[in-house]
Amino acid sequence: MAVKIYTTPSCPYCVMAKKYLDSKNVKYEEIDVSVDRDAAMEMVRKSRQRGVPVLDIDGNIVIGFDKDRIDSLI
Amino acid sequence: MFDAIIIGRGPAGLSASLYTARAKLKTLIIGKNESVLRKAGKIENYFGFSNPVSGEFLLNEGEKQAKRFGVQIIDDEVIAIEKDDFFNVITSNGRYTGKAVLLATGQPQKKIKIENLTEFEGKGVSYCSTCDGFFYNNLKVGVLGFKDFAVHEAIELETYTDNITIYTNGRELELSEKYIEEAKRFKINKKTITKLGGSEFLQRIFFDDGTSEEIDGIFVAYESASSLDFARKLGILVDGNSVVVDRNQQTNLDGLFAAGDCTGGFKQVSTAVGQGTLAGRKMIEYIRSL
């Protein structure tokens, strides 16, 4: 399973999402969009919106810390 | 430094304060005198009163009771809560530090009638400058609001852009002295907004005089900050318009509790009092465990 999480340092729900993935022993790649403009654009393109966190779980896009949706994909 | 800071002067907040203050914890209540209960003329189903009582009577007596136990009550508006080692509660006129905080702010009442506001959520409309401000680097952004809360949001957005307009949506600014000064460096637009427009993302804001402006982002900070506004910035779980708490009135953030109408459920004085009581007791346990 390939998991990417797009975050910014000031976003509290990003921290929660990462903690949740950790609690489920899911490995993920974190991308801080505040320092990576290309990744930010990639995130907007994939999710068609500008809020973080965004998770890409095997190509399935989850907007926000949506625990139920994350559970259904991991 | 306070032990317990309670935000809200309704029955939940006042009840919690009775317990924390009687446990000798330094307790502060902050809120405007605008509990929805104050408008209730006749309450007939609250235990212990054989004749109807008014909401105003209950609240006034509750405040007197709290003060008798040493609770400090400040008439002020909370515009932000920050968390580091402790909680910093920022108001229109000051800043207070506490070991534990109770949200007892009542039900969020905001209803903004602007066409497409909901449709552009996440696509130009945001409710959290802390979370989404980065996406508006050097772009033209607006803050929708007319109180200190809106100016505070505009100040937070200055990290990302200097092109900031406060849109009051037809209202006059209602600012405290400190924020009147702060607001001077922002553009202020007092026209009534009719709708937002754009293709995929927000691009334009339209006014009732037939004019419009280009815009990249709107941050909503309308009226006073509500429990939901605090929740978004602190990362507290919400369910619809309600703050999610466990059976101890504890949110998912250690030291932050919530009680009363802001947690949803059966909106009665008695349930607010009960939840406030439990929150007070659990705040005592939490503070003593630090």
What features would you describe in this structure?
The complex is a heterodimer of chains A (74) and B (290). Chain A contains 3 helices and 4 strands, in the order E-H-E-H-E-E-H. Chain A is 41% helix and 23% strand. Chain A has helices at residues 12-23, 37-47, 67-73, and strands at residues 3-7, 29-32, 54-57, 60-63. Chain A is globular, with a radius of gyration of 11 Å. In chain A, 34% of the residues are buried. The longest helix of chain A is centred in the N-terminal third of the chain and has 12 residues, at 12-23. Chain B has 290 residues and is of the alpha/beta class. Chain B has 2 domains: 2-109 and 226-289, FAD/NAD(P)-binding domain (3-Layer(bba) Sandwich), CATH 3.50.50; 125-220, FAD/NAD(P)-binding domain. The longest helix of chain B is centred in the last third of the chain and has 21 residues, at 269-289. At the A-B interface, helix 1 of A face helix 3 of B.
β-strand number of chain A = 4
Return the structural class of chain B: alpha/beta
Oligomer: heterodimer
The count of domains of chain A is: 1
Helix residue percentage of chain A: 40-55%
CATH superfamily of chain A: Glutaredoxin
Write a compact overview of the structure shown.
The complex is a heterodimer of chains A (74) and B (290). Chain A has three helices and four strands; from the N terminus they run βαβαββα.
